[in-house]
Amino acid sequence: MEISTNDYRVWTEGSAIHYEGTMRLSGTDAYAPILEIMHAVLEAKPEVITLDLTGLEFLNSSGINLLAKFTIEIRKQPDVGVRVLGSKSIPWQSKSLRNLQRLHPALELTIS
Amino acid sequence: MSVTHVTQETPENQEPEAIGRFSRHSFRAKFIAVVSAAVLFDLMLAGGVAIWNVQRLSKDATEKVETGLTDATEEYLRTYIDTTGLRTELLLDQVFSEVEALGASMQTLIDNHDTGAEIGLAVEGDPVLGDKLVYNKEAGWAQNSPGESVVSVWGYLLDDEGNPLPEVAEEIADSSAFNLIAPGMMKTGSPKLQLYYVGPKDKPIMRTTPYTEQAQTFDKLYPGHNEANFWDFFFPGVYEGWQDWLADPANRPVPRDIVGTAPYIDAITGAKIVSFFFPLWNAERTDVAGMTAVDITLDQLSSLVENVKIAETGFGFLSSSSGNILAVSEAGAKTLGLVSVGGEGQGVTGINRYLSQSEYPEVANMALPHDTGTVLETIHLGVEQHGGAEAREGYLVVLKELAPINLWDGEKIVAENLTLGFMVATDEIYAPLDEVRQELSDATQRIVSWQITALLFSLLVVTLAVYAISGRITKGLSELAGAARALQNKDYSVRVAIPTRDEVAAVGLAFNNMAEEISYHTENLENLVEERTRKLETANSEIVALNERLKSENLRLGAELDVAKRIQEMVLPRRSELEVIPQIEIAAFMEPADEVGGDYYDVLFDGDHIKVGIGDVTGHGLESGVLMLMVQSVARALQEQGDRDPVAFLDVLNRAVYKNITRTNSDKHLTLAFVDYENGKVTLSGQHEEVLIIRANGDTERIDTIDLGFPVGLEADILPFVATLDLAFGPEDVLILHTDGITEAENEKGEMFGLDRLSQSAHDNREKSAKGIAEAVITDVKSHIGNYKVFDDITLVVLKHR
User: Fold this and answer.
1) B270: which strand partners?
2) What is the CA radius of gyration of chain B?
3) Distance separating the N- and C-terminal Cα atoms of chain B
4) Residues of B in Cβ contact (< 8 Å) with A72
């Protein structure tokens, strides 16, 4: 599955979800198609879901909300592990991704 | 899409000129012109090439024929002159052979003296063959009476009685075999004038056959001969020459014993003759013993040479090496311009017609060849015409040198080469060539004429055909043009009938359809206008209704937005509230990206405690605005309750908001941080952007708030994450709160304003009042954004210790 625009690209490879570019969508409704992809991966109940954000330069607050909500959903399914990959060189990631780990302490966060 | 605008003009100006069928502007005329030009070009090219080729062929053929004919003519002339030369030599050779045969017989008698003497006695004794000498006392010589041959005995060979001296008598007897042999030879073989015998120098009796009165003739023509020695008188030098030969045969100019004379008038017969001598030797070969000789008339050579016939008037001639013409026809002599001169011969009378004395300088200067090759040259002679004007006529001259012979030139014996010559007018010899040339030229002219005629005829036929066909081809166009004119004159009933099936027919069909439509529209214009008006009215009323609906919808949406905006504006602290705060100078700036923003800030003041909050709700709009209002209300309630513990404050606030969010089924949350000030100290709590503190001395501190809290409204219980941080905040210290709308403001290049620029801007303006700092920072942010898009709400709160 893949969603691609001039600004960003979101695609899945197995149980890994990759994000790339700049996501500045206007609200929950605008993020719905992306959430759908993420749900589809979650519904397959893989052992570990990987959220690869290393290529995501910018994410607005609605996007961060989306990640938080998704993390809470994963938390409800103890069988499904989650791994988040971030990049130190992108300012918003080091700040916001730690909140995901707080929401779901089993979340494995790697900021490299 | 491009639209071609046609300038509207009055129809009168647009009236097209009717184009006549044969106007030079008509399509048909152009069509005919183009096709005719193409055909004309093609024909001219093809015709030109053909004519050029024919002329070249003609030229080549003429050259070939010319070369061929010239070669053939020259070859013919060479062969002819070779053959004639051979015949001349053969004729002479035959004569030579006969005189040699006679001489050889006489030599045999000398070499066998006894037998010769006996034969002589036998002949002398013969009543018919024997010599019957009769002494002519008056003339002083003895000569026999008429018979087959004559023998003359000169006076100095006789005694006083007229009888031959004894040794002379012996000589007469010894040589009488001549009477036996010579007459027979005379009658046979080649035509000869006479054969004769002369005895040795000391007894030069002369025998001749046939019989003539030779002594009488000599007396008449050569007075004094009867007293002088025969040899010295008639042929001075010949005898001595032979004696030389005897001493050394290599002295012979030509290795053959025959010696000829130059032509002369024969004393006896009066004919032009040539003599050939053959010497006899004594038995011991120590001295000359006389000779045998033959006279032939030049007629024989002449007839051979004169029989040469080349073309009409071409002739042959025979020349001595000195250029004396020995044989030539009279016409030939005239052509050569020869002049006869009498020879001053001693003993014999010559006849001379020298080339060098020709009346034509070209002939006079003509060089005779001196090898055996054949010379072929062309000369031009001036010939007097009837009018007296001189015309130059070309002649082809062929010269061939014959084999050499010994010649007595009147003094001594020399080698002589006769030269055979042919002469023919080039006009005659090349007459066939001229004919061929003329015929080829005529043929070429004929072909060219026919070619040109054919070209003109083709052009005529094609032009007529094109003219005929063009009528058919352009008929449709003419009709279309006429119909279009009629249509312009508002005759909408016009239609074209086009019988062909080409593009013109397609245009005609389209024209008919258009005419039909124009006709229909013109006739039904009023109905159509009414119908269209009705349709437009209906559409208009629909649009009006729709517009009304849209207006009400807009009003509704606008009202909603207005409400949200009012709510936001209502809850923000008023400037008057801030100005009364004694310890801290506070300035705030907020600019939403949309009509209603998602940013939150508040200042709660209750005497000695100041609480400043800042937050950022996810998203914008009414929902975000309401959530902000909730947060403000709860915070105000808690403040009023006197809750001074920032951790409990946040925990309760979160729980209240979380439950409300769950109830309203909203999926929003917010970051939220508080700054509490009391007695020169600030306490930070809650998770939000970094807090900036610019100290009075210029030091800058950045405080990360991640570990001080958690997003509000996301989790039911955030107490485990909430913490506080105490920091000194003294006079002139500045504290800056902001939302990410400031740091993430982008310029055209996509560069964010960032915390560093914010920090620098605040630092640079720290001396100003809180309001001054806020204005300066916002100015920097705006100038960074420039004309680029503002993505997010921008909120800035500046606290400055008084």
Assistant:
1) none
2) 77
3) 67
4) 714-715
